[in-house]
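Form 7-S
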Amino acid sequence: MLTIDPKRSLLLVVDFQSRLMPAIHDGETAVRNANRLIEAAKLIGIPRLFTEQNAKGLGPTVADIPVELDRLVHKQFFDACREDGFLDRVPADAHVVVAGCESHVCVQQTVLGLLQASRKTYIARDALGSRHPEDKETAIRRMERHGAEIITTEMVVFEWLQTADNPHFRQTISIIK
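Output:
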């Protein structure tokens, strides 16, 4: 299957942290789209996982993003896959949809770690952020070159829904419009 399988999906939300976000280029858009993914995932029943990088230094996740504390991984490694137990939380056959900051550091290293661990990985490009646009674009190209699929928030939502007959169709469409 070339589309995202909602039965195997996992949404990974990486490091939208309070001290980092003011410096992120077009960070409001990345947060808005991450929230759209989170809300659609909740509605459709897609599991979610959140990370925070060195929370003592970068602060907690921004208040605009509803972190589920039982699904939060605190990390020191830029690549979350290097943290003890992280990959245990990502099923081997998962279709991992990734949103987060910074694209060229924690997102990229985590995505490369997921790919190396043979997880099918999708990058929601409009739910990513970096301080500099060129870092974001370079990271996207690198992740894609190594096997990540580059998608948008709306693409994810429609692939999760699969059909206009999905009982959550109307509610989910209202989230992305």
